[in-house]
Amino acid sequence: MILWGYSEEQTGNNEMSATKVPDYWTTIIKSKTCQNPPSSLLSSSHLPLSPTSTAEKASLLTMTDSKTIPSKAPAGRTKGIPAGLSVEFRIEADTFPTDDGNPSPTHGDELSMCSTSVSSSVLAHEYKHGRRYHSYQGGSYLFPNDKEEQERLNINHHIYYRALNNRLFLAPITLAGKRVLDVGTGTGIWAMELAHLHPEAEEIVGNDLSPIQPRWCPANVSFIIDDIEKDWVEPRPYDFIHCRYLCGSIGDWPRLVRQCFENLQPGGWIEFQEGDYTIYSEDGTLAPDNYIAVLMTHLADACRRVGKPIDMAPSIKALVQAQGFQNVRESIYNLPLGKWPKNPRMKEIGAFSALQVVEGVDALTAAPFSEVLGWSKEEIRVLKDGVRRDSKRRDVHAMWNFHVITAQKPK
Ligand SMILES: C[S@@+](CC[C@H](N)C(=O)[O-])C[C@H]1O[C@@H](n2cnc3c(N)ncnc32)[C@H](O)[C@@H]1O
């Protein structure tokens, strides 16, 4: 494990000071068959392959819409929500008339110092598929760690934050003098924002395989290069352990839950925030051959084949209960994909969800579809084109579920 972090001078109002460059650096070393896409996929016409343009992003995220009419009432039960569990609210679809007054089926055609002397392989990167990947425990995580992927992770952070109504966590804990661990921290954005909102927390540690976290940190934040699938060697137990968006990263979920339990103080809290990325619609507008549905189905298959499932969200509550946690509580949020909802916050979440799919389709397919599923470059290109096209559709009311599980270690 490698720990690094800048201790940052802070101004009186806890704003970060950009003028002082700390020379503080701490380094502590602790420690894959083929499946082809459906023929319909390959026979579909597709758009030219190009990176998402600024105009595309702007189009996906523009929130202003014209007049709205009530949508059809959603039919059937809400996917993944057990009987008796309430959801935030039903999502009403917005309408998008064109100049000729007819509904528009698409979003529009314009869519279109961590390292210093630590020069070990840990801080190096691997390059393949035109992307950059982590080097430490190389190959154990299927997704890139480059700037584009970091941007996608930060878009997801915004989605989760807005889904929770501008909250970073739901666990009923006050953070004054407390120690917090963010497991698989990614860009470190959750840990950084937590530190800014809670300077009273004693320490916030984020760990990850990839050294992609900021060099400039609040004084109470540090980042560690560590493999969370190995035995944890934590100096002291934490008061709060946060695990978010770890699907596709973990092979042994019961072990992860156990290590969290073992590394919590008695009375400490755990929180899992995990998407169930099985895309669905409540009104039948999402066809099985929708390219986003095809993407997610095959991605789940690829991750299952390498032993790191992405469909764990509905199972986490039971794992947490089996481990002996108390006060276990699960909240499930039905979130949109696409800016079809009428409600402004849901429209925003849907727009960012579509954007992260468009931004992320290359990252999500590069290694899993070629190395694991054995798809050809041409098959992957057709899929990516289709995903980019289907992300713009407003006549498809695609949805996914976001699970938040909080629980307490017995006192
Ligand atoms: C999908 S990202 C989520 C990042 C962050 N939790 C968030 O919500 O923004 C998963 C992260 O887990 C990290 N990861 C995957 N396997 C890991 C492992 N065995 N040990 C530590 N980190 C790991 C990846 O490097 C990546 O940054």
From TrEMBL:
InterPro entries: SAM-dependent_MTases_sf (IPR029063). GO terms for molecular function: methyltransferase activity. Gene3D superfamilies: Vaccinia Virus protein VP39. Pfam families: Methyltransf_23. This is Methyltransferase domain-containing protein.
